[in-house]
Amino acid sequence: MVTSASPATDSVAPAAGEAAAPFEQGLDRLSPNRNLAPITARLDALGRLEVGGVALGDLAQTYGTPLYVLDEETLRATCRAYRQALAAHYPGDALALYASKANSSLAITALVASEGLGLDAVSAGELLTALQGGMPAERIVFHGNNKSAEELQLAIDRGVTVVLDNWNDIELLSDLAAGRARPVRVLVRFTPGIECHTHEYIRTGHLDSKFGFDPDQLESVLQHLAGCAWARVDGLHAHIGSQIFELEPHRDLAAVMAEALLLARSLGHPCGDLNVGGGLGIRYVGSDDPPSIQEWVRVVAGAVAEACNQRQLVLPRLLCEPGRSLVATAGLTLYSVGSRKEIPGLRTYLSVDGGMSDNPRPITYQSLYTAVLADRPLAEATEVVTVAGKHCESGDVLLRDIRLPAASPGDVLAVFATGAYNAAMASNYNRIPRPAAVFVHDGVADVVQRRERPEDLLRYDVLPHRLLPVT
Ligand SMILES: Cc1ncc(COP(=O)(O)O)c(C=O)c1O
Ligand SMILES: N[C@@H](CCCC[NH3+])C(=O)O
């Protein structure tokens, strides 16, 4: 896992005695974000793992594998945790915007919208998904370090707030927005110059980042925008990175942002919003110990209120953009176990029917995960295996050296905490179709994304006439 220094062997299936209590009682799971499994994880009468009232083994039978499973109750609980914590800890208005890059679909958008959250989108695809999923445009912000004119046009036509990331955004928007009756609502993103401990690929707050205006340029950007009738600068944005366990960098961010807010308001910008981004990490393996949503919000909201009060600033509306911490723990991926290769004295590979195409995080960030056998989650772990994917790539390993009960072909492996940055980052490498996704709730499963078929992958191929096989 990206931030923990935990050895790969921490990614261990629970041994019988240890895991019995949490699985049977499910009590620990009632506090989302403290655990690996969705809050509805239980054992059914046969001792199989069920989520949302549905046995995972049955889901695999019905819908096939690999399969993304999302527990609706966990997703609602995390949305509510953000809303309630913001209401409890911030003395002004506040809104959590779901960072839909973590997992973008109509169903997730509809659920998140129904829980009263807003949304952050970074492409025309995410924006269209959000709008069609029923997210009100006034609750959407549109990000991106290289937005196209078409994407910006879509955003402003639909009344979405644009987060200005660079001068190119300003130039494109000034052309697109010229002559409109009302100014475009924008936030200005800047790099806060804050370091945090996470994988270098997912750090964004340090100065050497492609995102946002350099802090040294912020004043000239805000001065320039003060003369732009087409823009209404309604706030500032900064984001320090992802899968962060520390709270201190978020405190530092609040002070940096309050200082920037003082500057922006002194230049005449209304700046009613302060958007502190996302970044709260989650538990992927037992040794990970992230703060809870409540703790994170308490610290962030307290720090923003304090930093604003110290500068005698009218409190802005507080926006934050959680992605991973909203969806990751609600999700699991089911795989079928296939071939086995034993290399005496070295390693045993157990191959599954998915891999880096449905979960590129291990090969990209060396991320760790935890897995159990869906139908025997409490069976004694008797061997150490490496779970490999089916791609033509030696690095296509999902879990390295984990302890599992002896597994045979056809057994279903459930990998926890795959709700974020798995489906969203999936590819068709080796022309492997992307898995289906199901929502589970109260004993019912609904397909929310259909499984691709191999023939779907040919839809955009064009065979020029001159290359047609001669018959
Ligand atoms: C601008 C912005 N907001 C929000 C997020 C969501 O971050 P996380 O999933 O870590 O909460 C990201 C991703 O790092 C981001 O780049
Ligand atoms: N894709 C990354 C997170 C990126 C955050 C986006 N700014 C991950 O899986 O951890």
TrEMBL record:
Pathway: Amino-acid biosynthesis; L-lysine biosynthesis via DAP pathway; L-lysine from DL-2,6-diaminopimelate: step 1/1
Keyword Repressor applies: no
HAMAP family, A to Z: LysA (MF_02120)
Required cofactor(s): pyridoxal 5'-phosphate
Organism classification: Bacteria, Bacillati, Cyanobacteriota, Cyanophyceae, Synechococcales
Residues noted as binding substrate in the record, renumbered to the chain: 324, 361, 365, 393, 421
Similarity-based family: Belongs to the Orn/Lys/Arg decarboxylase class-II family. LysA subfamily.
Keyword entries, A-Z: Amino-acid biosynthesis, Decarboxylase, Lyase, Lysine biosynthesis, Pyridoxal phosphate
Self-association and partners: Homodimer.
Protein name, entry field: Diaminopimelate decarboxylase
Enzyme Commission no: 4.1.1.20
Residue positions where N6-(pyridoxal phosphate)lysine is found in the record: 101
Positions of pyridoxal 5'-phosphate binding: 279, 321-324, 421
Its biological purpose: Specifically catalyzes the decarboxylation of meso-diaminopimelate (meso-DAP) to L-lysine.
Domain Orn/DAP/Arg decarboxylase 2 N-terminal as annotated: residue spans: 75-328
Source organism of this protein record: Cyanobium gracile UHCC 0281
Listed GO MF terms: diaminopimelate decarboxylase activity
Enzyme type, top EC level: lyase
Catalysed reaction, written as an equation: meso-2,6-diaminopimelate + H(+) = L-lysine + CO2
NCBIfam families assigned: lysA
